[in-house]
Amino acid sequence: MSRFRRTALLVGTTVVSALSLLAPTSARATEVGRGFTLEEATIASTHRAMRSGQLTCRDLVRGYLRRIAAYEDEVNALIALNGDALRTATRLDERFRRSGPVGPLHCAPVLLKDNYDTADLPTTASSRSLAASRPPDDATAVRKLRAAGAIVLAKANLTEFALTGITFGSLGGQTRNPYDLTRTPGGSSGGTGAGLAANFGLIGTGTDTVNSIRSPASANSAVGIRPTAGLVSRDGIVPVSSTQDAAGPLARTVADAAAALGVMDGYDPADPATGRAAGKLERDYRDGLDRSALKGARIGVFTSFLGTDPALHGEVNATVRRAGRAMRAQGAEVFPVALEGATAERLIAELDVQRFELKGQIDRYLASFDAPKGSLAEIIASGQVDPLFLPTLATANSLESGTAEPEYKDRLVRIQAFRDRVRNLMADNDLDALIYPEQKRLVVPIGQDQVDRNGILAAVTGFPSVTVPAGFSTPKPTAPRGVPVGLEIFGRPFDERKLIGYAYDFEQATHHRRAPASVPSLPER
Fold this sequence. Notes:
CATH class: Alpha Beta
Number of helices: 17
Helix content: 25-40%
Strand order of the largest sheet: 1-3-2-6-8-7-12-13-11-9-10
Order of helices and strands: HHHHEHEHEEEHEHEEHEHEHHHHHEHEEH
CATH superfamily: Amidase signature (AS) domain
Largest sheet: 11 strands, mixed
Distance between the termini: 26 Å
């Protein structure tokens, strides 16, 4: 019995029974409504098919379950399935027949990163130490997704406690990149990224402390949005850093990511940081989907974040140059800019505050309900954390009061000064956005550390960024379509609508997204 099937047995018999019917004899057969093509489906295409009578919500969910049954053992993107997904789909179909869609995400099967609290499923952070953790209610973002009609189809794997960029945990194991099964899917939200790339769900969620929404988007030819600090509530999400944590959507298209962001955003008294967004929310971020958004925009290629080793960074740098040319063709002014000393490596060394905040954040989260472990110290002592992550956890735990450390306070001062430098860079050059690669080198083979990532700029400033597919590396035997490269588009606070417009215009002009060869379309019956 596979690791995934064992996990499903812990969730409920409904989905297990469905998977048993679908695999192995029928795992290679797809029947989704009346000829509806599931692979690369979007929210808009599924809603059109539902309105025409071509597709039901139950058809859609069964189609994704069929793909999961066929390919999950290869990709290992998921920790648990929602045993109530088919029943929820049936209820949504009944509602649709009576009065139309529940909301903008009607019947959107969601791959939910397993550090988002769910009252009906464990929330494990991919750690055996939290395998039995059952929060009493949904995270605020989850509650909003469900209210808009979304279905939590599965909890997705992540790096244990969202600590690094490789998507490996003591509970979930190693997720593999569908474009090259010998490589990581980025991280820490790599289960979501790989699952979306493999067409296991329609949309997904991630969290991002330094890179963790945008790295999997880059590595899996997906779209990821790290919103402005305070735009989306982090209530009910296993925390790392109150200064740097963000929650946001991933999807295969800019339009679907924009739709999800418009549901997830908003003020939440349980996360006081969301007060910053009062009066700055968009009615619908899909209003920014403009095929002429780049015309007249001033875009700076942030050369401080380009790699300097041709052997390691050449293919990614070439992709960024091509992206700049594509933006010029859409009418943008694109030119190089830099910020002296602002390499990603230096910013991480001098500004990152995770280790100072982690202990207090985790301890408060565990104390908020009847968790199986009561503190970070108990997690470490349990022996139920992979040894790879123990040094990071132990360092954080050794700081009795990390936020009282002089170095922590100095870093907060330096962060504020750096925010001003970035604002001034954009003002001095009259910039609408910066672009750079989320990852300076191609996503690494499994077993290596995911280095050379550039997410720290948005993480410490709290400014928004959107990662969008920008192309692929040269094909190789293990990567027949190449390895994806993602372009990050970074802007000023609460400029999400503008960035979404630039990303959409670029996406529609280039159409870089391609499904991975390792998980092909399943033939019709």
